[in-house]
Specification:
Elements (H helix, E strand, L loop, with lengths): L8 E7 L2 E7 L4 H4 L17 E6 L6 E11 L2 E6 L2
Parallel strand pairs: 2-3
Antiparallel strand pairs: 1-2, 3-4, 4-5
């Protein structure tokens, strides 16, 4: 199971309790959107935070924007921002 590599996560902007993150990974976007992927960073992300994603950087790169939709009891959920 893939999980976040926190050394590839950085803050782009922070204001009023909202954080815009950038994350790059060799994992695919589908892997990033699986359950428990972001659980390791539950102590630093908030519901409503956004993540600019560069995924599958060693294959067919994909870019996207995610929003953190849940963070309770160490379980973080993220969805593609439409």
């Amino acid at each position: 199971m893939a999980t976040i590599d926190s050394k590839n996560l950085s803050v782009l902007a922070y204001a009023n309790g909202f954080t815009l993150w950038h994350y790059t990974t060799t994992d695919t976007e589908a892997e990033v959107l699986t359950a428990n992927y972001f659980d390791e960073i539950s102590n630093i992300v908030n519901i409503g935070d956004m993540v600019m994603l560069n995924a599958d950087t060693d294959g067919t790169p994909a870019n996207g924007m995610l929003v953190i939709t849940g963070n309770a009891s160490g379980v973080v959920t993220a969805e593609t921002l439409v």
